[in-house]
Amino acid sequence: MTTAPRLDPPARVLVTKIGLDGHDRGSRIVAAFLRDAGMDVIYTPPWQSIAAVVKLATEEDVDAIGVSSLATDHLIVPQLVAALREAGLAHVGVVVGGIVPADEQPALVAAGVGAIFGPGASRDAIVAGVAALAADARAARDAELREQTP
Amino acid sequence: MDARWSSPDIPPALVALVDRLRRGEAAALARCLSLVEQGGAHADAIGRLIGAASGRAIVVGFTGPPGAGKSTLIDAFVGHVRAGGRTVAVAAVDPSSPISGGSVLGDRIRMQRHTEDPGVFIRSIASRGHVGGLTETIHRVLDLMGASGRDLIVLETVGAGQSEVEIAEAADVCVVVNAPGLGDEVQALKAGILEIADILVVNKADLPSARRTADQLRAMLTLRADARDTPVIETIATSGAGVAALAAAVEARAELPAEQKRARRLRRVRRLIAQAAGRAIRDRILGLDDPRSDAALEAALEGRCGVAEAAERVLRLLAYPAPPAPAGAPSPVTGRPDAPPGERSPPPSCPSVIPPYGK
């Protein structure tokens, strides 16, 4: 198992699918991985709109979002990242898992995606990647309260 | 130990956050809910900032066995409430794994009708090992949701068995959702969640045995001594059938006399105080550095007294802490300065008869 640091209360991670692809086997398996690593996983069915994901991430105050994409939906992830920023959720880590062609990965990273996991990615790698992004998000959030804004 | 702030010392960012919550901003409510979950100084400060402004909203609780259709019914019920123009907050509790501590919070899956409606705020909450169907922080969660100005709060318990009755204290109206075919008449007779119902629902009423289940529940109700007028409503959450009747019944029950409302709030406050006191005592006992408590520990370890009795003694030590150590000679027994002569140090051994549990 992984040695990634655990948050207390546990990391809150949204596992979802945006766009039109309905292949949700992968997202279910990843949800179980993260649960078994001690995280609180908020799971949705596929076919979520970007607006719905932003609303959900806001209400659930998630630390990270895992987007599963097996049929080109990764191409709208930059829109999701932009919408999150606009909603004041720039701290939330975004991970993409599934099929992302190598030549399309740099665009996602440039848009702000924190990690990309393709076929064959190990449980430990996925858990560690999500845990690290969630820990960063939590730290950024906690820092906000220390700011002495007027 | 956490730092405790007096009001002027609360970080301005936190004050601003709570102001935004009061104005109904969803992001601020969400953030405060996380901080309350985290506990500690921030949670206390939020509690103080919210103060008496909380708790105007009606809290409707839904409980019942796993798979009865609670989440789906809530989805339909919330739809009905929204059609009337009122805003809603939902707190949905799901179980945490006792093994990993993690969870999959899936109640939202059945609440897809409201994914883009800003008038519906849904928060998934992990039970984190709390037994009773809810969570330790649930009362604070409800207070925050109320303070954010939502008209109605819906509270969903984990799939409940027969003894998850905490919801009766947290909710103004308690709906117990049943599904057909989960048991016979004997189940309906048993003590537990059926007794706390203000409204009984038989969901999945399109199943053939639904009528019989509803009849059994009604029969059970006629046998009850307190003879409350508890409606039994048949619903089909997936089609919306019966949901209007349910909403009407909730409406009727929500009109509590002010006196009853106050009594319920008082019970809630009492529970919050008990929780806070329990945590404080636990922390102090774990951090207790007093040779007299070692004596109680050793007595319990060696079986000279029961744990309950040792606990009593340690509590007494907390109530009457050791005075500053006198400069006198060290105790011949412990090698440390002895307590002054008098009542406080425990006798060398416990009586062999342990008082009955709970005495």
TrEMBL record, chain A:
<protein>
    <submittedName>
        <fullName>Methylmalonyl-CoA mutase C-terminal domain/subunit</fullName>
    </submittedName>
</protein>
<dbReference type="GO" id="GO:0031419">
    <property type="term" value="F:cobalamin binding"/>
</dbReference>
<keyword id="KW-0413">Isomerase</keyword>
<keyword id="KW-0479">Metal-binding</keyword>
<dbReference type="GO" id="GO:0046872">
    <property type="term" value="F:metal ion binding"/>
</dbReference>
<dbReference type="Pfam" id="PF02310">
    <property type="entry name" value="B12-binding"/>
</dbReference>
<dbReference type="InterPro" id="IPR036724">
    <property type="entry name" value="Cobalamin-bd_sf"/>
</dbReference>
<keyword id="KW-0846">Cobalamin</keyword>
<dbReference type="GO" id="GO:0016853">
    <property type="term" value="F:isomerase activity"/>
</dbReference>
<dbReference type="InterPro" id="IPR006158">
    <property type="entry name" value="Cobalamin-bd"/>
</dbReference>
<keyword id="KW-0170">Cobalt</keyword>
<dbReference type="InterPro" id="IPR006159">
    <property type="entry name" value="Acid_CoA_mut_C"/>
</dbReference>
<feature type="domain" description="B12-binding">
    <location>
        <begin position="10"/>
        <end position="140"/>
    </location>
</feature>
UniProtKB/TrEMBL annotation, chain B:
<dbReference type="Pfam" id="PF03308">
    <property type="entry name" value="MeaB"/>
</dbReference>
<feature type="region of interest" description="Disordered">
    <location>
        <begin position="321"/>
        <end position="359"/>
    </location>
</feature>
<dbReference type="InterPro" id="IPR027417">
    <property type="entry name" value="P-loop_NTPase"/>
</dbReference>
<feature type="compositionally biased region" description="Pro residues">
    <location>
        <begin position="338"/>
        <end position="359"/>
    </location>
</feature>
<keyword id="KW-0808">Transferase</keyword>
<dbReference type="InterPro" id="IPR052040">
    <property type="entry name" value="GTPase/Isobutyryl-CoA_mutase"/>
</dbReference>
<comment type="similarity">
    <text>Belongs to the SIMIBI class G3E GTPase family. ArgK/MeaB subfamily.</text>
</comment>
<dbReference type="GO" id="GO:0005525">
    <property type="term" value="F:GTP binding"/>
</dbReference>
<keyword id="KW-0342">GTP-binding</keyword>
<keyword id="KW-0418">Kinase</keyword>
<keyword id="KW-0547">Nucleotide-binding</keyword>
<dbReference type="GO" id="GO:0016301">
    <property type="term" value="F:kinase activity"/>
</dbReference>
<protein>
    <submittedName>
        <fullName>LAO/AO transport system kinase</fullName>
    </submittedName>
</protein>
<keyword id="KW-0378">Hydrolase</keyword>
<keyword id="KW-0143">Chaperone</keyword>
<dbReference type="GO" id="GO:0003924">
    <property type="term" value="F:GTPase activity"/>
</dbReference>
<dbReference type="InterPro" id="IPR005129">
    <property type="entry name" value="GTPase_ArgK"/>
</dbReference>
